[in-house]
Predict the structure.
Amino acid sequence: MKLLIATNNKGKKAEISALFAGFPFELCFPADLGFDQDVDETGITYAENAALKAESLCKLSGLLTLADDTGLEVAALDGRPGLHSKRYVPTVGATDADRRAKLLAELADKPSPWLARFVCSVAVAAPNNPTQYFDGEVQGEIITYESGDFGFGYDRIFWIPQVGKTLADLPMPEKNLISHRALAVKKAIEYLLK
């Protein structure tokens, strides 16, 4: 079965592809189909943003489409950056390192530990069918130093006490056992197999 994964993010593509390995799906990505426009994420929840991407690309391609929206929520910052995790530094060309630096600067005068969680919502859109939703989250805390060579985004400063490592310390097979995105995508795979 052909399945369009609605992302051009290299890190997400790798994680989601690894999760689908061994299942009877032929994955493709927007760039494979010549789609290069970004869908405006104007929703007020992760699920709404995931649905905007999944439904828009499903309509364009006619294919079964999976999209996710993910955010980092830090308790000491009242849940920020949240829905704006990717756009936390509004400058064009801002990098993951820029976003991590801004987050740590905003936390500098707050008492630690800085409890946080990653939240992911996955939407699966199919032609002429209602969109389905699947969620996952992982609890942790923000640390002041970077650790790990894997992952992307805020992974290098997101410490998971239960494994004693950051998300970026975990190679893909380990990350895909516990990460927010993996938990949501695995639920979506169960649904798709039915």
Observations:
- The first strand starts at residue 2 and ends at 5.
